[in-house]
Amino acid sequence: MSDDVTRRQMLGRAGLLIGGATAFGFLQACGGSSSDDSTPPITEPPVTEEGPQVSQFPYEQHLPAGYQLQSASTQEAAYHAYYNGGCCHGTYSALLGELAQTAGAPFNLLPLDFGKFGGGGVAGYGSLCGALLGSVLVVNMVVSNATARAAIMTDLMRWYEEYPFPAYVPVAKNAKEDTGVTLDFSAANLVQLQRSPRSHLCHASVSGWCAANGVSATGGDKLARCARLTADVAGKTVEMLNTYLSSSAYTARPRDEVSAACVSCHPGTIATKPVASGMECATCHADKLGSHF
Amino acid sequence: MSDDVTRRQMLGRAGLLIGGATAFGFLQACGGSSSDDSTPPITEPPVTEEGPQVSQFPYEQHLPAGYQLQSASTQEAAYHAYYNGGCCHGTYSALLGELAQTAGAPFNLLPLDFGKFGGGGVAGYGSLCGALLGSVLVVNMVVSNATARAAIMTDLMRWYEEYPFPAYVPVAKNAKEDTGVTLDFSAANLVQLQRSPRSHLCHASVSGWCAANGVSATGGDKLARCARLTADVAGKTVEMLNTYLSSSAYTARPRDEVSAACVSCHPGTIATKPVASGMECATCHADKLGSHF
What is the sign, positive or negative, of the torsion defined by CA atoms of A230, B157, B276, B245? Predict the structure, then answer.
């Protein structure tokens, strides 16, 4: 936990995304809706006669000098938001909520519920992990330097491939969490459940973790794992954005050595079996680890 | 080409995204920027004292009764926009541009350049095809019924896996297209270049097509293919959105038979090797097509 964020502050931030009057007021202020997707918001549209506009993109230009996001409160908000709309909603609403609360317009003119489509790798398809997608969308909102923007996105996906999820320990357990949980997610035991996905795709990430832990991909254990993973990704995104915002630059970590060897023979520039990819190769192409001529 | 869209109208729409004074005016009106990502827009923010707001999400509520998107002009715009910012920018800016032009706010309050991050499967990583991602983001903006929204996204990705790209024939060839093109992309020869990706991922889609056609993944042929694919995806998205908008419902096509058989033994609900996925299985798991106990 960072020194400048107390447990009470974190609970306060997280509470905004859990429910109740406080959350409703916040969602109204940010233009989101806490009701079903098909119900139009009942609030009056915000008056935006002056100040930063949504059209003035990207939004780094609207951040004050020296601006930094808070990590701990954003992670806790992401963990709770997962139970209210999935992994993409978790990172998206937590990161956007942090920006809306601390930087104002145009972040507070955007709908907080935009990320609900991305859960389970886009509508449950198993594609790009929704926690990554929610983060990528907010990174895209903020970062004005196109080279650094691509580097942050690449670095986030490469970090995800190797990170032993889940690592986050919630400050307060979500009320929905106990349903169907059979594994021990306590801080003392969490390391026993951890596994690196070796892929940025929801399909491989979820299926592999569930198989390794002997649980279904639809039960409470999967939810508890992905809620913590969502907080892990949100926290890493805060770290990356803060690094960029304090230096106006970002450099992605290099590819793993095995994948680097793959693309040394199969660069995108050749006409015979070129490979267009920045991801880890061996996860899906283990048969190519030896000689394959 | 649909009966109500003439060749001149299509060229006019497409021209908005190519360049010149017309495009600049349009981008200004829609709040986008035609300049480098790192340069803040020079336009004054639009006055949004009344009318639909960006916060009032999703935006189907702001569409007039009977609203339908135009396919042909959107496809041509997507094709040209590809050469100005990649595949995700192609579908995103063409679909959002169509909505902004024909339905107004809040679509015309959003930045047209938001999709440039997604090219090459998110910052060139080879993940979810950017043309799909740009379309998914706009589908998410429009569709208020969460069940139909997920069905459209699933259907679009499943359609993509099997579609023999590229199929679109531009009305007017983009000025940037001739650079490095060695294959014959004429309407008469296009069928010779077509290949179904069998994956919704940029990595497999691009690498497989380039290998099959004996070209690099970085040259003009790849660009010409992906520009046409971008138009194909934009057109399919228009068709899907129009189906939904005229019926308020949508049903995704079922999984392919092989994948359906895979998940009959490996449903997400079991604790031993559950599979979390909606995508085609055999593309990456060909070794599992026979007995694998």
Answer: positive
A122, A128, A265, A285: best to mutate for the B interface, most B CBs within 10 A: A122
Contact B224, B177 (CB under 8 A): yes
Q: In chain A, which residue's Cα lies nearest the Cα of B280?
A: A125
Rounded to a whole number, what is the distance in angstroms from the first to the last CA of chain A? Answer: 51
Q: Which of A143, A109, A224 is nearest to A176 (CA)?
A: A224
Give pLDDT tens digits for A127-138. 999 999 999 999
Residue burial B137-176, b: 16+ Cβ < 10 Å; e: rest: bbbbbbbbbbebbbbbbbbbbbbbbebebbbbebbeebeb
Cross-chain Cβ contact B268/A149 below 8 Å: no
Q: Which residues pair with A165 in a beta bridge?
A: A195
Look at residue A149 and tell me whether its pLDDT is greater than 80.
yes
Using a CB-CB cut-off of 8 Å, the residues of chain B touching A200 are: 125, 127
Nearest-Cα distance to chain B for A147, in Å, is 9
pLDDT tens digits for A187-246? 999 999 999 999 999 999 999 999 999 999 999 999 999 999 999 999 999 999 999 999
Pair A116, A144: CB distance under 8 Å? no
Query: B224-237, pLDDT tens digit by residue?
Result: 999 999 999 999 99
Record: contact A54-B109, CB cut-off 8 A: yes
Asked if the Cβ–Cβ distance from B136 to A117 is below 8 Å, we say yes
Strand partners, B195: B165
For A9-56, write each residue's pLDDT tens digit.
444 444 444 333 333 333 333 333 333 444 444 444 455 568 999 999
For the record, the structure tokens of B230 come out as 């971008």
pTM (predicted TM-score): 0.86
Give the minimum alpha-carbon distance from B148 to chain A in angstroms, rounded to a whole number: 10
Q: What are phi and psi of B214, to 5 degrees?
A: 65, 40
CA distance B168 to B185: 10
Q: Could you tell me which of B170, B155, B176, B187 has the C-alpha nearest to residue B220?
A: B176
